[in-house]
Amino acid sequence: MIAQPKASHFVDGAYVEDTAGAVIDVLYPATGAVIARLHEATPAVIEAALVSAARAQAAWAVTRPVERARILRRAADLIRDRGEELARLETLDTGKPIQETRVADWPSGADALEYFAGLAPTVTGETIPLGRDFVYTLREPLGVCVGIGAWNYPSQIACWKSAPALALGNAMVFKPSEVTPLGALKLAEIFIDAGLPPGLFNVVQGRGAVGGALVTDARVAKVSLTGSVPTGQKVYAAAAAGVRHVTMELGGKSPLIVFDDASLEDAVGAAMLANFYSAGQVCSNGTRVFVQKGLKDRFLARLKDRAETILLGDPQDDATQMGPLVSAVQLDKVMGYIDRARAEGARLVTGGGRGAGNTGWFVQPTVFADVTDTMEIAREEVFGPVMAVLDFDTEDEVIARANATEFGLAAGVFTADLTRAHRVIGQLQAGTCWINAYNLTPVESPFGGSKQSGVGRENGHAAVEHYTQVKSVYVGLGPVDAPY
Fold first, then answer.
1. Per-residue model confidence as pLDDT tens digits over 403-438
2. What is the mean pLDDT of residues 370-374?
3. Would you name the residues annotated as active-site residues?
């Protein structure tokens, strides 16, 4: 139990255990070993979390924004000070290589806390003159928010959701994925060490039933979910019954379009980042790589050469570039997609098998070419290191094909012609887009999708809209003009 926390939950400023809850074994993806054993939240734990959140939020809402900001800034500093310890915990929890978790996971979370700390004191209302009278507006917190995390970026997601919520005067009850439950507990600890009042950030563990109990509770004003489309549909419906505010960041099958005038090395590098980083377990990945026919052969040849140099292995080794998938369930799912892609006639360029020995849930970086739009790997989210390369001839053709999906999370374009780049991006149905780059998600920029990929935005100033509500106040400065 090398990663065993003090207890399963963090409620009202302290660790809490209730062994009556169902057992959650936390497995290290590189070996399958049990590294921690937690328990699901019982109704008593859920109730304590919601009660403490409601109590704490009432006082937090009237705390000066600059005072809230100081606490969040201290939390960001603590994350950076404890960077190596947190990176190693994230590697154990997720199986990601330590070279990733040092720079991408907790550091992004610290950036979010720092950004929203700076933003909080600037969020103000406006004055609307009406002649003699006037209206002023106030931006008020929503109240108790529920955050539901995914297993691919567990600690980053916990920070991305809690940073705007807390900065803007809300409280949050956060439920991590049962697959990767450890990082959120550390975040709760860090908040207390930074001076956050108890009850404002609570962590409760559990599977779907725990999430269901949270999103349907009458005390909850807002639900923010990162997860799959089917999960999002269920949570959205449950939250709608209580007319709650909702932010959904769901799945994707995003297009990455490479025109034949693009820089070959840059396009290949971006395609690899868009499919192999975090072993392909990234919702915004560009897993449909459309390559114009004039560049196709050179693109595939260079892609094969570079993909076959990726080092799979022990995630705790500094040299390892790609780790395992997060679970045995995910491994079976991804290998099933690979087998069916072969059966449907896709051409295997590289990979296609298990990797890194006989232990752990490793899959080789895999590339399929000659993929058609109707093949399963071109339609469904694989969530593993599996790239589908499709051919195209013309700009109009590729735009139509790129948009022919229920998803709309992300999209990318590689071309030397910036006029074309902006023209194409303007027609792609996706919420988060890149030109001559991919999967860069600074906290200053809004992140989210369209169509089935979600509703609302995380990060950037846009997040203010999703964690506050506007109160309008009409001020009469003269006699009341009544017709009675």
1. 999 999 999 999 999 999 999 999 999 999 999 999
2. 98
3. 161, 249, 283, 458
Q: d(Cα 246, Cα 224) in Å, to the nearest integer?
A: 6
Residue 71: half-sphere exposure toward Cβ, Cα within 13 Å = 27
Which of 111, 363, 379, 367 lies closest to 254, judged by CA? Answer: 379
- Give the C-alpha separation, 50 to 45, whole Å: 9
Handedness of CA 94, 453, 290, 439 (dihedral sign): negative
Distance, CA of 426 to CA of 444 (rounded, Å): 21
Tokens representing residue 359 in the block: 């232990």
Kind plus residue range of the DSSP H or E element containing 471:
strand 468-475
Q: Taking a C-beta distance cutoff of 8 angstroms, is the pair 152, 191 a contact?
A: no
Describe the chain by its helix, strand, coil percentages, rounded to 5: 40, 20, 40
Which DSSP letter does residue 62 get? Answer: T
pLDDT band at 324 (very low <50, low <70, confident <90, very high): very high
Task: Give per-residue pLDDT as tens, 212-239.
Answer: 999 999 999 999 999 999 999 999 999 9
Structure tokens at 258: 């490479």
